[in-house]
Amino acid sequence: MSRRSAVVAAFVAMLAVAALPGPAGAANECNGIPSCLPVEGPWVAVPANGEVVFALACPQRKGVVAGTDALATSTDIRASFDGILGSPVAFGRTTNTAVLFRAVSARHRAGAFKPFIGCIPTPSAVRNTTAAKTTPVGAPLDLRFATLRVNPGFQRVVTLGCPAGESLVDSWSSTAFATPKPPAPGLSSAIKVKTHIVGGHAQMMITASEALPVAAGAQVQLGVRCAV
Hints:
This protein has one helix at residues 3-18, and strands at residues 37-40, 43-46, 52-57, 64-72, 77-81, 98-105, 111-120, 142-149, 155-160, 167-177, 191-198, 201-208, 218-227. By secondary structure, the chain is mostly beta strands. Strands 1, 2, 4, 7, 8, 10 and 13 form a seven-stranded antiparallel β-sheet that branches. A three-stranded antiparallel β-sheet has the order 3-6-5, with no helix packed on it. It is globular and about 50 Å long. Residues 1-25 and 125-135 have low confidence and may be disordered.
């Protein structure tokens, strides 16, 4: 085995240990991509009105996203992801170690979607950011996020900020469920998140109803986007 092959094999083995539990690769995120590790996200609640965003990262934030896909509760749910500007469009240029998915309901019916990403070792021939190039726009925004498990009666205030030298652009929160099948409609209403921007930080208060089923595997993702 060549040294390069050994490095790739070791990387894939490391990601396999760090990957989220449960079956992954149920979609097409790794189709035609060698040395690809599928990473499966939870079912993310999509409101009847408005947009939901959810970030999914390669395990330990190592590697680069080379493929994406998603499943949904119906074709009313439309999903996309944010790509980094640059040419040519390709993994390592258009994507980084994490992807920010966006979803809406085309006919304003609440539903859910499950995001997938396929991760590969960071290519040595390309950079995973366009920040070093002169472009008409600034460098890609830095995503910082945390996903918390939520039990019945859960209450907590979480504060997220940006690394030193970066400024807060905006924040997001989304509700998800780590179950094999989509959650029951309206289940996300059992979890409330209120966000306030205080002193350049996002302060988020999470409250869950006592009626929230434990078996729902409820999660709340809190995130901020930062600029250098």
